[in-house]
Amino acid sequence: MRKPMNAFMLWARGERRELLKLHAGVHNSSISILLGLKWNKMTENDKRPYYEEQLKLTKMHRE
């Protein structure tokens, strides 16, 4: 079984689609940089649901 995604990856999978729509033709590495910058600007409260989902997935992975 694959290792579960971390909070950033959970958030980024949906956000990446939106950025690709806005920045069509931009290289994936540039999109990743934009995602990192956006994630770092988010508050802990905004990130909380993704950390909670990460904990659930990690627990399921261990079982």
From TrEMBL:
Cellular component GO terms held in the UniProt record: nucleus
Residue ranges of the annotated DNA-binding region, renumbered to this chain: 1-63
InterPro entries the UniProt entry points to: HMG_box_dom, HMG_box_dom_sf, SOX/SOX-like_TF
GO molecular function: DNA binding
HMG box domain span: 1-63
SMART domains, sorted: HMG (SM00398)
Keywords of this entry: DNA-binding, Nucleus
Statement: the UniProt record of this protein carries the keyword Nuclease: no
Protein name as catalogued: HMG box domain-containing protein
